[in-house]
Specification:
Oligomer: heterodimer
Mean pLDDT of chain A: 93
Number of strands of chain A: 2
CATH superfamily of chain A: Cytochrome c oxidase-like, subunit I domain
CATH topology of chain A: Cytochrome C Oxidase, Chain A
Number of helices of chain A: 18
Number of domains of chain A: 1
Strand order of the largest sheet of chain A: 1-2
Bound molecules: copper (II) ion
Strand content of chain A: under 5%
Number of strands of chain B: 0
Order of helices and strands of chain A: HHHHHHHHHHHHHHHHEHHE
Largest interface: A-B, 19 and 15 residues
Structural class of chain A: mainly alpha
Low-confidence stretches of chain A: 1-5, 608-612
CATH class of chain A: Mainly Alpha
Largest sheet of chain B: none
Distance between the termini of chain B: 49 Å
Helix content of chain B: over 70%
Amino acid sequence: MSAHAQKKKNPIWDWLTTVDHKKIGILYLATGAFFFLLGGLEAILIRIQLLYPENNFVGAQTFNELLTMHGTTMIFLAAMPLVFGFFNAIVPLQIGARDVAFPFVNSLGYWLFTAGGIMLNLGWFLGGSPDAGWTGYAPLSTTSPGNGVDFYVLGLQISGIGTLIGGINFLVTIVNMRAPGMTFMRMPLFTWTTFITSGLILFAFPALTIGLALLMLDRLFGTQFFAAEAGGNPIIYEHLFWIFGHPEVYILILPAFGIFSEVIPVMAKKRLFGYSAMVFATALIGFLGFMVWVHHMFTVGLGPIANSIFAVATMLIAVPTGVKIFNWLFTMWGGKVVFTTANLWAVGFIPSFVLGGMTGVMLSVPPADYQYHDSYFVVAHFHYVIVGGVVFGLFAGMYYWWPKIFGRMLNETLGKIHFWLFFIGFHLTFFPQHFLGLMGMPRRVYTYLSGQELETANFVSSIGAFLMGVATIVMLWNIIQTSVAGKKASNDPWDARTLEWAISSPPPEYNFAQTPLVRGLDAFWLEKRAGNKTMTPAEPLDDIHMPDSSILPFMMAVGLFIAALSAIYSSWAIAIGGLVLTFAMMFLRSVIDYHGYHIHKEDLPSEGVDGK
Amino acid sequence: MGSHQNDSVSKHDQSHLDIHHKIAHQKELKQHIVSFAMMIFLTMLSFIAVASEAISTRFAILFILVLAGIQAAFQLYIWMHLSHKGHQYPTWGIFFGIGVAATCVAAGAAMIW
Ligand SMILES: [Cu+2]
């Protein structure tokens, strides 16, 4: 790969300034994995506290902080960046593009997310983390003493900007940068779900931005938007949060659906059953996702009419979701199914997620919801959909795309041990919680009394959590072991169907030496059936234009970070300094011309077959 | 994607296309004049609605909001050429955004006590 002799860059500087979607993807994946471990650690501490009745492992206040940070970390700092990691690492390759539409914005999105993630976790070192739950309901959040909730508000606000611009970037990328011949109905399903997800981000995140902005004004500037005693209305916060919050669930699950729709056909050696129905179901889920948020607020007292409308809308979503489940089953039916680790996660997902879907339909019935609300039944439900759906999807994607992203195979045996330990641990943890909830154990309470028959299920639940912890250690060992001594990955280790497998593993920085010509759905599979080893090029070999790397996105994020942190401590001069830094970087970005550079065609490896 | 595929048309086709462009252009000019007149007329109507004693404030507000909606449509479709080819994505985006925002505002107005 040293054919084109570029001057060797300092690796740290290189990672700070990169605008290459593949490197940004790796940054997202690494940061997401770090926060996943952190959120997992918080979960284990929570489960140790709940191991025995009236346990005093952590106090009530620490428990509240752990619980808040576990939820916030897992949703915003683990699942979101991991999803974005796969968007970045895979989608441009799947559509035959050389990069995303806005590489600079892509890098800015990553650094803003990271700045927000660090800000959220500062509370651990600065006298108290957020403690008002991941939802941050007012007035609990507006009246919470200390700076904990301030870190929540400003951290989420900064990382939210990053997510929003990331979503816009992928919308534009998928609309504009598809290779010749790749019509919308020839796009792989992961690209489709990325597209719909990016749309959901675009429309859902502004509601969160407004909610957090009002919360910030209430906490830092003494306004009373959510203070009922001053004529404010805390219910507005709940609406704003869930107008964002419900689509957010689909922002997480749709990419997982996309991953399963890639893995299952490849591992069954069949084309995806009902491709167009899958696309339509994805779009319908995205659309309906915006009109169901009140199902989180059935017990607020909005009245029977509002509750009924939103209950019916919620139940409707079960239809397209069911369509997807059946399509995956029909894809496997009659296929030559290979149970690779990636496929184990996909197959394990189906019963787990269906269970979560069933309890979802149960929760969507308002009279029943009055019984389930704020109990462990809800905790069991959403962990079944988020772990059984999103996390299984991310693991499936990890085992499936690891060779493409890093150029090395993961160990399949260790992978299977990881799967089985995690799968068993997951069900052990969350299945008993359904019954804990039905028996009346409230969520978010730091302990429970003995003699109420809650002991056994809580004990089993904690053991399950420890098993998931052990499974994660096996996964880490797998990663370390194979990156030191793993087998090198070929271009196409799974005999797969989509464009990313037509190029070397890992891909060269320009992805495709020549833009490929797409002749149908499963473009690479079609070429392989036609006896071709690579894609047919759509253009002659030519110089490749590449974008310049830049430190400005990193500096913009640093500026916002400084501004937010100083605002929390009311150091207004420094806060303004931080904002000035950010705006100065934006100014520089506007006035400096970035011409990019060319990789000359003479420097490309001959044949461009596998980049060797 | 690539909507300009006619860079290799013959001379004859070119003049043929020119005529089509001319007709389309004239049609558009007419549309612009009509919409310009309409927009001024609508603006006058809203001023009258506010100034006149005979029209109640409640009605005037509703009336002006409806007129504003029409004006926005004129602006988007006639002046910002949203009706032209290649604007499907912005159109989808705008209308989905309006839909989401309207749902939220309506729900907020109806449900917040
Ligand atoms: Cu929901």
